[in-house]
């Protein structure tokens, strides 16, 4: 693959420099100039960057890494990323450039292919804990000898080394040739696990050197690396490497959001930035409220996908700088609009090839070249374009011609100027009854319609048509009516055969690791949703409404005691006791986010909430109610925290075979069969006429008898961390074992009589049982989309003595610690509600009231809102779980603290019990003030909300106060 052109364009002095020696050469030439800046303002000169990379290379050599070894890097845009990259090149090791957002399935496949000797990771990427992934990779892959962590938590992974600590004497110089592999990039395709692209020292140096010359980079360039630097676009088109080559400054950021990236532009005087079209659109929209000074910007590059002309003009007008379109691929070929191209070309085309030696052919289905102005598939060959993927002979046979041209899969048209216009992808042509339809054409037509924020079109397999046209639409603030969309498309002149056969609404796009829309996943979703709509007619519940004599609560207890069932949930809410019995269908969420249904179907959606929605969407029952529970560790999945304590499932939802709903004076019986309904009626008659179950011996336990010193040590540790500003609030819990077998029904009855909960529940799932008196809800959503959450924070006991209780209440309402704890909880709830509700609808309609809950009194507030377009009850649930009362603030850091300090499975404690209805309503209650049984083990558990002002003694007292909401009302199981 080496070529003379790779040598003649080495650098401005005409010298040939392998990538392994680049940084040394640049440090000698640019010395004290600032090479690299991060978000916090930390700066490294060229000499400092080179010295650190040299020390790291020596340390890695001492640790056993050698020239030719593969080393996978999976790091965000930090100083550490660039130090690792240059150190590996200096050592002669080959970086394997994994994307920061790739997860276990992709990383595992890439490990199998690349066989890396080392794995470089950050301790976390956003909310995702990378250490657990690295530990699993090390277990599975014998080749992985070394794991290096950029962060402060390397000790949490046995055998891992900290990037900051690795240093050594200079490693030996290695002989490197222009044609040797320098690094392995990943393909940015829209389907499947990315393929590996071996780029050589010669071709890759040319890639960023010639690009920097063409794009006008210089020593004055300040380049904002906002896209992942592991991606070819941000790394070398011209990217960070092109900037370094000219002596400019790279500003590395881990966030692409306007409110973080744009202030960086102002602070550092950024001149150049590269974006992809979706991010460009967000930046245009963001300027409506973000007012940083962007006058330093000279050039914004946009690539990765076709940029629509309208957005191109908006970008120029909004950012006030020059636009350059970039069309390229990690496999090699790069096309740029030129800086002196007319505006029309910049807006409407994607540029022309970088090198005069690039060869392109535009061909039809038979590989015959088409005339200029006609659309065909782009084939490319040139001095920096690969001739085959790494270890992929089957793929290479279809992706490369016999004479070495790369089949890009892109459909392009060559203009008279020589510039290319990208019309789509070959795989984005839909073959519907023999008609070839461009997905891009239908997408453009859809995007022009009122109420359509964005649209993506795919071809889904169809028994009659071969492929049907499926359009996924992200709404623009209003509900999508498929019939109206189809009519509007016809009115706008779209041919009938191009009108989508299937139209689906979607809230978030599934993305590949390269942050492109995953069309393969969209096809899968289209098939699943259609399968649901074509399923057999759902089975209705048979039901009857009957009068009762017993009080609703008494009847619920009698039924729970009498009815034999392996699985049941009794849920008290809003004056109703609902009892779901036996499982007709179960939905479970695994630790990796996979949603599984007991009929064998499973979903791996872009979010867990979407997977649950899909699993519920085609249930074979009419007018169902689901009963479920989410263990606390479900939050670990949501926030990417390592879960070494809970093997799953993390959430379980049961669609009952039989159901009883009890209200004052009446009961509704529901069952899927006439026989079950008859048996329910017999059980109801016996229970209504019968007596309440006798109680066994009362169990007396001293909740203060053990664990005080250990708990107070945990509190002191967490308070110290909060005082160091690692997080603002955390809830740590204390468990108390019950030494004898507990009568769960009798204890639930006694405890409920002495508590005044927001909700109560009693459940059984095989050997696991629990009951509780929930002080607050996690979230409720009604069928109209009205959402409520109820943060509680701040506690005092209730003694039963009116004067003492009033004094305690006054203390509660004036205690600075309790008020601060409550205020930050309400603020977080407001922020979380705002993420799923219409912005103008979110409000705090009750603030800092005092609620009495059994033996304790709390500060309580209500936050309400209305679901935003495209959001569902499960979106709200996912966003609000766990309740801030159960975790802390910020939730990610609080969850990590709980994981560190408690070191054991919480399970249902501080999780939730819920019911959900087929009309979209959902009611989820927080599990506190509860008792638990698993086999022969019975226990209570409670905790306290800690803030920086907390004291170990006070939090121990608060925890014991909460345990007394349950502890005095325990009864032994009668023999």
From TrEMBL:
Any one Gene Ontology molecular-function term assigned to this protein's record: oxo-acid-lyase activity
Q: Where are the transmembrane segments?
A: 79-98
- Taxonomy-wise, where does this protein's organism fall, top ranks first? Bacteria, Pseudomonadati, Pseudomonadota, Betaproteobacteria, Burkholderiales
Where in this chain does the record put each AMP-binding enzyme C-terminal domain? 441-516
- The name of this protein is Yersiniabactin salicyl-AMP ligase
Listed pathway(s): Siderophore biosynthesis
Pinpoint the Chorismate-utilising enzyme C-terminal domain residues: 708-962
The AMP-dependent synthetase/ligase domain covers which part of the protein? Answer: 24-390
